[in-house]
Structures are given as structure tokens and as C-alpha cells.
Amino acid sequence: MVRPVRSIIQGVALAALVQRVEGTYRSFAATSWIMTATTFLAILVIWHEYLVQVMGYVWTPTLIDSIVPFAFVGGEVFMTHFVANDLRNWLLASGATFLVAVAAWVVGWRQARLGRGENRAVFRSFPKAHRLRGILPGALGLLGIAGWARYDALGFSRSQVIAAIGMLSLLAVYVAISIPYWSHVAAHAPRH
User: How far apart are CA 92 and CA 45, in angstroms?
Assistant: First the structure.
């Protein structure tokens, strides 16, 4: 039941992005298109990361597990809202969304560690990768919030496209680093 609900929630985020772009694309500069691409990639990666956890580990969901998808969609909808020419607030929404990813990682990691013995094989076979899962989105989150807080001091008002490319590049690095982890979990996951 978690997977269908999660896919519906991600569908809401994607629909919000499509509506926002459809209604405002005529005023888009290169920065807005890069923010749109980054937001789309973030929605996709968040869905896939959550899917890997749900498929790869066995645990009984708690109320906190139920809150995670809604926290994500909140951040994603704000990211979506700001793709139309508001880089500063988009950086804040992006940073907050990636910090939600850290919280989701903590919840998932704790649940999987406390869960059944079937999860142990995945943890034992790739222990350092599990720690990285919290560090990478944490870095993205802190960089997004730092970009928002120090926006003028960093000169982002004059070089918005560079800031947007920076976030897209960092997210692309996250995806590249994540692919071996996702494959590993799929290969060693308990079969339920």
C-alpha cells in the first residue's frame, strides 16, 4: 500500500511542476529551465530512492514513515512554485527538500536496522554506502540553504545560471554515486 500512495504523492508534485511550467514558460530564462530540469530530476530521484528502500528492506511502517512522503511533496511543490524566476527561494525550497531526504534516510536506516534479519545481508555487504546515503542529500540541503542565506554575498543575483547549474550538477553527481548503491540493494534485497 505504501508504493501506490507514494506514487500518487509524487504524481501531485509532477503535476504541480507541469502546471507551473505550462503557465509561466513564456517568461522563462535559461535559469528557470535549469531549475525546472533540476526539480524534475529531484522528483524522479526522490521517488526512486524511496522505491529502492521500500523494495529493498523489510520493516513495519510507523506514523513517521507515513509523514515522510508528505514532507517530500511539500518541499517539491515549493521547488515547483519557485522555478518561475525566483532562484533565491528555489534554493531554500531545494535545500529544505534535501534535508527532508536526510530525515527520511535516518528513518529508513533505523527501521531497516531494527527490522528483520533479512535486512542484515544488505547492511553487511555494503556498510559505508548506507552512511553516504545521509551525507550526500545533507550536503545538497546545506548548500541550497547556504545559497539562499548568502545569495547576494555569493553574487547569485548576477550569476543565477551558474547557481542553478551548480545545483543541477550536484544532483547529477548524487545520481551517479547512487546508481551502484541502488543496484547493490536490488541484488541483495530480501525477497518478499
Answer: 19
pLDDT of residue 1: 42
DSSP 103-155: HHHHHHHHHHHHS-GGGHHHHHHSHHHHHHHHHHHHHHHHHHHHHHHTTTTTT
Please give, one letter per residue, the 3-state secondary structure of 90-111: HHHHHHHHHHHHHHHHHHHHHH
User: How wide is the angle at C-alpha 41 spanned by C-alphas 140 and 70, nearest 5°?
Assistant: 75
Burial 92-115 (b: 16+ CB within 10 A, else e): bbbbbbbbbbbbbbebbbebbeee
pTM, entire model? 0.89
- Give residue 14's pLDDT: 93
The candidate with the shortest Cα–Cα distance to 139, out of 169, 181, 179, 184, is 169
Cα–Cα distance between 119 and 125 in angstroms, integer? 10
Q: Cell 540541503 identifies what position? A: 141
- CA distance from start to end of the chain: 14
- pLDDT for 109 beyond 90: no
